[in-house]
Amino acid sequence: MDYISTGIRRFDEEIGGGIPRGSIIILSGTPGTYKSSMAFSILYEAARKKGNVGIYLLFEQSMKSLVFQQEEMGRVMDDGIKKQLIVSDVGRIRAAMDRLEKGNDWLEAVKSYVEYIVKERRADLLVIDSLPVLEILSAKRSRRDFLFQLFEWLRALGTTTILISEKRSLDFNYEEEDFLADGLIQMTLTPVGEVDLQRRIRCVKLRGMAHNTSMFALEHKEGAFRIAPAI
Ligand SMILES: Nc1ncnc2c1ncn2[C@@H]1O[C@H](COP(=O)(O)OP(=O)(O)OP(=O)(O)O)[C@@H](O)[C@H]1O
Ligand SMILES: [Mg+2]
Known about the structure:
The protein has helices at about 10-15, 35-50, 65-70, 80-85, 90-100, 105-120, 130-140, 145-155, 175-180; strands at about 5, 10, 20, 25-30, 55-60, 85-90, 125-130, 160-165, 185-190, 195-205, 215-220, 225-230. By secondary structure, it is α/β, with parallel strands linked by helices.
């Protein structure tokens, strides 16, 4: 099988080799747990090391603020990378909507925009940051309709997709999308003693893989993510 690296040192081995190409993964977590940074890092490393073209759709943060933080973390967007990692925020997608004459149907506009880039630029990686905000923008009658349509479209598109989802706490109250997706990776900040919070990550589900479900500590140092045993 062909895998996409999570870009997290030692985590790929724990999940059986990486993210199987073509799968749809939910990356969910509480606020500030590196959801966006990890998704960005997956696209960045794949572009840099393997030449993959990726699309990062941002619905809840500006391109400027995401790219600023990623550059601070060591992922510099030079001209070569910019050709392979296409970051689009709401402003850019809105401009494309006008060009594609898609009116106000955000979900349809986003689909056309992504299909265009997949075809023209041979993009095979997609990040949607975030699923809840796309859902609000899409104004579908029901959550089920929205998810059903989105997953059906993603399966046909064939990209390896990361859907970022927000969680108030990492309890075991799973959402419908957690069942629909091929994989579920969760990130959290867990209290350690009275004063500290430790960043943690675990893979709850990954179809077709004998993966480890343990919680690991997650660190970001010198431009790279790595895992360590959780304390
Ligand atoms: N230069 C840096 N190096 C390492 N960590 C940083 C740096 N700048 C910010 N951070 C950390 O990154 C966190 C935000 O990361 P990121 O945006 O990837 O998280 P997120 O889970 O997507 O957050 P949100 O819930 O807001 O979407 C900040 O809360 C901060 O702790
Ligand atoms: Mg984020």
